[in-house]
Write a structure and sequence with these properties.
Number of helices: 3
Largest sheet: 6 strands, mixed
Shape: globular
Oligomer: single chain
Region (Disordered): 90-110
Strand order of the largest sheet: 2-1-3-6-5-4
Number of strands: 6
Structural class: alpha/beta
Strand content: 25-35%
Length: 110
């Protein structure tokens, strides 16, 4: 699963959740946007916040709400639970389970 922050309509940055059925990874991919734009768009969308230039905290409930209705994998819920458990075991899940720490990567084609 990828949360992308890319330049959208009217050259305004927007956040979108893509690769919804691939829960083997969860990353934030930034297109040609500034760090400030990425931080503002993430917070405005409710999907999370930037922690630093290479790390973001994604809101687990908001991410699931954005992705699950569009998921097509029959076992998506089980895969989601496995992804969250993996994040917990790797120390990337907040103590309250509300956010998942992810790496920031460049968006494909950006």
């Amino acid at each position: 699963m990828i949360v992308e922050v890319v330049t959208g309509a009217d050259e305004r940055p927007e956040a979108r959740v893509v690769d919804i059925d691939d829960l083997s990874r969860c990353v934030l991919a930034l297109g040609q946007v500034t760090d400030e734009e990425a931080a503002e768009v993430l917070e405005r969308s409710g999907l999370g916040r930037m922690q630093d230039a290479g790390t973001a905290q994604l809101d687990a409930a908001a991410l699931r709400a954005a992705a699950e209705p569009r998921a097509t994998a029959a076992d998506w819920t089980a895969q989601w639970d496995e992804m969250v458990a993996r994040a917990r075991s790797e120390g990337r899940l907040s103590d309250d389970g509300a956010s998942i720490r992810v790496q920031v990567q460049p968006a494909a084609g950006a």
